[in-house]
Amino acid sequence: MTLSKVSKEVVGLLLLLLFGYCFFFLDMNELELEVPSSLLNVNAIFLSIVLEALPFILLGVFASALIQTFVSEELLQRFIPKNAYAALLPAAIVSAILPVCECAIIPVVRRLIKKGMPLHVGVVILVGAPILNPIVLMSTYYAFQTNLSIVYGRMGLAFLLCMVIGLIVYVVFKNNNQLKTVHEHRHEVEGNKFKQTLYHASDEFFDMGKYLIIGAFVASLFQTFLNRQVLLEIASSDIIAPAVMMAFAFVLSLCSEADAFVASSFAHTFSAGSLLAFLVYGPMIDLKNTIMMLAFFKKRFAIGFIFIVTVAVYVAILLYQSFV
């Protein structure tokens, strides 16, 4: 581990400890500061989102670390048939048992493709695993206990869409190699499996945590300061609202194990279809994923993939709103 990486982790840990101290021991009344009510509202929304999401983040990073340490790519490939069309359903099922969020899924899928997995099968796992995995199912259920249609809708749409997107990718790109040749710097962790698991879990926690904090803060600002009338006008449109929530999901780049808590904070404003657009699109493609896609895959494929996912999700949400 380099000195710069160690120093970043030390700074991150110190900031986390400072946050904990301020939250549990600092009394704003003793400081005699007059804090505007709007900022207090931002603080309340921000903390509620972060504190609800943290347990699922921790659960997710440990599950992901265990997969990375103990499960080989070869083991997963045994479940995938050779026939291109027959492989879609098993790939969707495999993605449902992988506790890997979108923060980590691209490197995993890239390794699978390099080891011989067909491109379209890798795409099914790429878009399916961040939503269908059991950790996300639990967090979505916890966030929407009073509206289980969101839970069923998210899982059902994701399961169907990952196969549809994989099929379209197969038709458009066949199984031509779409990976860039990238020089990899491998950092192996010496020691037993337990030590490796802890290392990967801590690494992922800090990677995911920063996106959760940024996303929760932006969401709290969005809800506090955006003109309510404008928000209501956007939310009332079945055509515009899903597109706005998809754009919001793309920019926020939330971890899929925490995004349900941000979405639930909009439950009283946006329709179920708009919330599902946020919950389905964000884990499939967001800003940080786009950067990683462009780094690991050929530019033409990355742009085509983003277009296919965007159109497929938007059309699926419009159909959902029409029939439900």
Automatic annotation (TrEMBL):
The keyword Membrane applies. Pfam families: ArsP_1. InterPro entries: DUF318, UPF0718. Coiled coil: none annotated. Keywords: Cell membrane, Membrane, Transmembrane, Transmembrane helix. The keyword Cell membrane applies. It is a multi-pass membrane protein. The chain crosses the membrane at residues 6-26, 38-67, 87-109, 121-144, 150-173, 230-254, 260-281, 301-323. It is found in: Cell membrane. Belongs to the UPF0718 family. This is Uncharacterized membrane protein YraQ (UPF0718 family). The lineage of its organism: Bacteria, Bacillati, Bacillota, Bacilli, Bacillales.
